Give the backbone structure.
Amino acid sequence: MNSAVVRGEVRLLLRDPAVWIVLLVLVVTLIGAASQGVLRQHAEIAVLTEMANADADRLESATWDAIRLEEQGGNVSRFRDPRNADVVGRRLAVQHLILPPTGLAALAVGQSDLHPAWHPVSLEPRDQLLAEGELNSPRQLAVGRFDVSFVVVFVAPLLLLGLLAGSPARERESGMLPLLAVQRGQLGGWLALRTGLRLLIVLLPILVVGVMVVLLPGSDAFEAAAFDTLLRLVLWAGAVTGYLTFWAALGAWLGTLVRDTAQSVLALASSWLLLVILLPAIANVSLELSYPQPSRIEYVNAMRAATDLARAEGSEALQQYLEDHPEMAGDDVDVDDFFAQRLLVQERVEEALLPLSTAFEQQRQARARQVSWLRWASPAMLASAGLADAAGTSESRQADFLQQVHGFHDAWRDFFGPRVLAGRPFFEHDRIPTFEYSQEPPARLAARMAVVMLGCFGLSVAFGLLALRRARSLPKVMGNE
């Protein structure tokens, strides 16, 4: 294709009012979505920073209070004594384990509005601790948040299809198609040029806004590694490009199948409705029917029964523990100690509820496996999962963080449990375990994103080849024999 043809297509594109309307709508929605994402990220970082500082101040105050009481004496309740291991491990030294936001967290809310970015760890029961977190509006959770990923998945394909609607049927109706066929011979190059230019009009503003959000000062207050941020940005850009390329190829192919503009618009609108709205809704309903959650009422009833039984046997449980662990028994050990009994009661309750907890976890894992397959039903679902994964707000990162929380909670109880059962004064505040989040290996993230991009680009190539093959006989199928 000669340069004159390319310049002519560019001039026609710049004179099309629809192009400027699409650009205006896209830029306004992107700015609004990016602003909301950045504000939300800054507010979350401020809360997490304040929470971490409060934990450090509380522990420092408890350390000095324990030293002062030991040196100067004084009367203080055992339920508030900083020398009591149970009080320290249950209240005074509570740590809020934080999942640090990535440099791209403002681009996709993902699962971060359903799963809290922090979990407290103490001697309280694990189920009670995991139930704590940010309280979001149920209506807002049902509707979802407006972010850049929403614009990419829902709005951008609609705008792109709007630019592609009516082509090449419009050229046939205006009588230009035979002239184009004479000038260019094969119309595949012309169709690819028109589709590619319109793809760039929608794609470039999204990529620019994504880069600008990442480079904003203060958007990554937790100082994520530069390599991690760069890798996520590249993967995010690849997912966006692959997803929109699919819609461009699909639009070009559907455009070659119809004879008039009205049919073209109807076919493109129907494809967007099917792939973006209907198929994800059907997949969600099928997931709920296939893997319903176990009964919460049954879990609560079992917890109450186990708690009542364990409390009734509190003294016997502590005595049995001391018999099994004679190194913990001493002359001053009180088998009626409230704090030791409470800790053993919690352990017995958790053991009794283990089968139900395991059932919940198995069901969650089964649903996660089903979701990984269902997302292939629609490119919109595939892209949405990929964008959240690249931004660090996906289910997989949340699950990895929760696994680290469970491991640290076990270490916390291993540290405080024997000291509570011993009943001796506690002065080891400087030896209390501390948590440090371990980032996911980049290779694992890249492997998951490679699957997403392979799916999007694979579909793009398939529909693109179909469109080019159809374009070879375009004058004939359009009625210009």
